[in-house]
From TrEMBL:
Biased composition (Low complexity): 175-193, 214-230
Disordered: annotated segments: 1-23, 169-238
Domain of life: Bacteria
Organism: Nocardia fusca
Pfam families recorded: DUF5682
Protein name according to UniProt: DUF5682 family protein
Length: 802
């Protein structure tokens, strides 16, 4: 502090801003340059002061957010977001660029995270907007503040907020608490009113200008007014001063007192406009503030910088201090020359990208219309409403669908910020950054499709990373149907999109390990060790471990699976697990993974199934038999896919035993005969003989229908090519009595209804061609005269000469 400054009287200026307002940001920058403070205090978590230094890094690019989380419980976290057009960010940059001491002055994150105090309410800006003749507070603020750059705006805003605070009610438990000047210490909610429950992510301490909480109207409590309460007009809900806001403002005043005590003479305080009146000089004695702050709960919190996105700054995302048009606000702040013309040029680019015709003449006419609307409304500059109307009328030609594209891609927009690598982080996050950089995977806010060829080293590395992150709950990539036409298993397609909340997921997952691979291995082993994990769950985990290439987890999973399979006597569990286990044996060919250790487990499980299946198929009901049929289909496909002669022989042998059993449900017998026929274990003549035996006298009509359903269910092509089988079924159906036909027709309709339309048509034609006696009399005769009439009619319809 210079001697001149030491002799100056102290001065504190309060700059009440709107969070994420470009007009506020530009006006604040001008005001700071005029005031030239020696200390700047900014609304934000006080324990984030050590992180201010990172704002000067060249690699720091808004939007970013301060992330605070409970060290022992990372899922309890809060964010303080900033965009380049946020006044707080501009204050930070001004302080860092001019080497001015800067501090955050709001409640520390350690105290914010210790309580779950969320109060929502009415925006006090609505009062000012209504006084100005606006029915929308956002439009009013945009017209009065955001479209101008005037450092003198702050005094007027503070005066207006002070008038509003005088009308606000105090919560009952805080009625005796007033500010040093007699004005109740009040403000907005700390958190988003629509924030998720405790233990999930929330956006904290960036309350909207003038947000309060709804309360009962005094008029509603006073019966006896003229006309009675029933006839009285509805009264607007008053603003309420909640205790949490009083505590926050008490902390801000304490930080302000400490800055003055430390020798600061010219202090600039940047805070939400609603708090500005409570921070004006004189502050008065500190005793009342100390009483409010005494005994507040606290947790051990860690803070860092994380990337943020424009869409998360939007009010539509549920963010309490959000704005409706972050993309528009970013444009206003960064484009100082001809902002309307440059904006409409961007709009034209978006529409052209969607194959909509937009010319330069369209842009010129839209600019003229926006400026004319602004002049008619006595606005100094066209705002978003005027630009949107011009866009709809000229560029979109009245098409609201095209206008929505502009709203999504430009008005809200999407941009992902970046933080410097030296910012504090957990080792797992550092490993993820390094791995993604090596694999050339860029964290982006927009959805991007990634097609991978698993025969390439880099692509297989990307696949492993994305699978590992999914296991850790970080769904950066989501598997999707590929756009590349390919056969085989060497293709994967992912939809990539990075969300800001993933930063918390990564921190939370860091308890499992310091690298992505180590954390994924520890997590999957922990999941597999839980008491409820059976052979099906363990097989899925093993398949996932191979996809993600987690060699450190394979031995443990295989051992656990072997133990679980040894004590599980339920054949349906083993049958459900077998296909997945056999599928994993293929990954060694495609991904280069050693799957030899799985062979013993797969072989032993198949042996147990083959030994226990004959005893497990007796006495089954219709529903159980149908479920088991599907499992037999899947297991047969898996065994054949493995292409292992000994395993295939074991499986077909047990199917042959089931096909010869008279005490097995007809649905299963029919299906095993069909599977054996498809595997060339029996020929079609043998299959026809078995079908004829199943349809012979002695079996009930329902049992015969079940056999037919098992044999042809879902696979009608065999009846198209094998006329002998078709004749057997056709003859059986033709010989049914009316009572028997009514009994079996529902099952047969379900069976034949599942065939492809082409298969049903071919079967019908085969039945017709094979039974000429059933043809209607005279159907084969032709009438040339009638045919000629038909041809003339068709020619008239088509407009061609007959």
């Amino acid at each position: 502090m210079s001697p001149a400054q030491a002799g100056e009287p102290g001065e504190t200026r309060i700059f009440g801003i709107r969070h994420h307002g470009p007009g506020s940001a530009r006006s604040l920058r001008l005001a700071l340059e005029e005031f030239r403070p020696d200390t700047i205090l900014i609304e934000g978590p006080a324990d984030a002061d050590p992180l201010v230094v990172h704002t000067a890094a060249a690699s720091m690019a808004p939007p970013v957010a301060l992330l605070g989380y409970v060290s022992d419980e990372p899922a309890r976290a809060a964010f303080w977001p900033y965009a380049v057009f946020s006044p707080e960010w501009q204050a930070l940059r001004y302080a860092v660029d001019n080497e001015i001491p800067v501090r955050f002055c709001d409640l520390p994150a350690a105290q914010v995270l210790a309580v779950d105090d969320r109060t929502g309410g009415r925006d006090a800006l609505a009062e000012l907007a209504a006084a100005g003749g606006y029915d929308d507070a956002e439009r009013w603020w945009d017209a009065v503040v955001e479209s101008t750059s005037d450092s003198g705006t702050f005094e007027a805003i503070t005066e207006a907020m002070a008038a509003l605070r005088e009308t606000a009610l105090i919560e009952p438990e805080t009625e005796t608490v007033t500010g040093p000047t007699g004005t109740p210490e009040t403000g907005g909610s700390t958190d988003d009113p629509a924030a998720p429950p405790a233990g999930e992510f929330r956006t904290a301490a960036t309350d909207e200008v003038g947000s309060g909480v709804p309360g009962a109207s005094p008029a509603a409590e006073t019966p006896g007014e003229a006309g009675g309460p029933e006839s009285a007009p509805p009264q607007p809900e008053p603003l309420i001063l909640d205790r949490h806001t009083l505590i926050r403002e008490a902390h801000m005043r304490q930080v302000l007192r400490k800055a003055r005590k430390d020798g600061a003479r010219r202090i600039a305080v940047v805070c939400g406009a609603w708090h500005a009146p409570a921070l004006q000089e004189p502050l008065g004695p500190a005793a009342a503030d100390l009483r409010l702050l005494k005994g507040l709960p606290k947790v051990k919190a860690t803070l860092t910088w994380v990337p943020w996105t424009h869409s998360r700054l939007a009010a539509a995302s549920g963010y309490g201090a959000g704005v409706t048009s972050p993309g528009w606000y970013h444009h206003l702040f960064t484009e100082t020359e001809r902002p309307i013309a440059s904006w409409l040029t961007k709009v034209a680019g978006v529409l052209r990208a969607h194959d909509l015709p937009v010319s330069s003449a369209h842009i010129i006419e839209a600019v003229r219309l926006a400026q004319t609307l602004a002049a008619l409304r006595a606005r100094p500059l066209a705002g978003l409403s005027e630009v949107t109307e011009a866009t709809r009328a000229v560029l979109c030609e009245g098409d609201d669908t095209a206008l929505r594209l502009v709203g999504t891609e430009l008005v809200v927009g999407e941009a992902l910020g970046a933080v410097p690598p030296e910012a504090p982080t957990v080792p797992l996050e550092a490993d993820l950054r390094a791995t993604a950089r090596t694999l050339r995977l860029k964290q982006e806010a927009l959805v991007r499709t990634l097609d991978l060829d698993l025969r390439k080293e880099r692509d297989i590395g990307r696949s492993r990373l994305l699978h590992r992150l999914r296991l850790l709950g970080v769904h950066w990539g989501t598997p999707s149907a590929g756009t590349v036409q390919s056969k085989g298993t060497f293709r994967e397609t992912w939809e990539l999109r990075w969300e800001p909340e993933f930063a918390v997921r990564v921190i939370e997952a860091s308890r499992w390990g310091t690298t992505v691979q180590a954390a994924a291995e520890a997590k999957i082993l922990d999941t597999a060790a839980r008491s409820g994990s059976g052979v099906t769950e363990l097989t899925e985990a093993l398949e996932f471990a191979l996809l993600a290439e987690l060699p450190g987890a394979l031995d443990g999973l295989i051992a656990r699976l072997g133990s679980a399979a040894a004590v599980d006597h339920d054949m349906t569990h083993l049958l459900a697990a077998l296909p997945g286990l056999l599928r994993t044996l293929r990954y060694g060919d495609v991904r280069g993974t050693d799957t030899s250790a799985l062979t013993h487990v797969a072989d032993s499980m198949l042996v147990r199934i083959c030994a226990g299946l004959p005893a497990a198929v007796t006495g089954l009901g219709d529903d159980t038999a149908a479920a088991l049929r599907d499992q037999l289909d899947t297991a047969t496909t898996a065994v054949h896919t493995r292409n292992h002669a000994e395993s295939t022989e074991q499986w077909l042998s047990v199917l042959a035993r089931l096909a010869d059993r008279p005490d097995v449900h007809g649905l299963l017998v029919g299906r095993t005969v069909r599977l054996l026929c498809d595997a060339d274990r029996i020929d079609t003549e043998e299959a026809a003989r078995r079908l004829a035996a199943a349809l012979s006298v002695g079996n009930t009509a329902a049992a015969k229908a079940a056999w037919v359903d098992g044999f042809v269910g879902g696979r009608g092509l065999v009846l198209v090519h094998d006329r002998a089988l078709l004749r057997l079924i056709d003859g059986w159906l033709a010989g049914l009595s009316e009572e028997q036909f009514v009994e079996v027709v529902p099952l047969l309709r379900r069976t034949f209804g599942a065939f492809e339309s082409g298969e049903r048509r071919a079967i019908g034609e085969a039945v017709r061609d094979g039974r000429p006696a059933a043809t209607a009399p005279g159907a084969a005769e032709t009438d040339p005269a009638r045919g000629l009439l038909a041809l003339r009619t068709v020619a008239d319809i088509l407009g061609v000469p007959a």
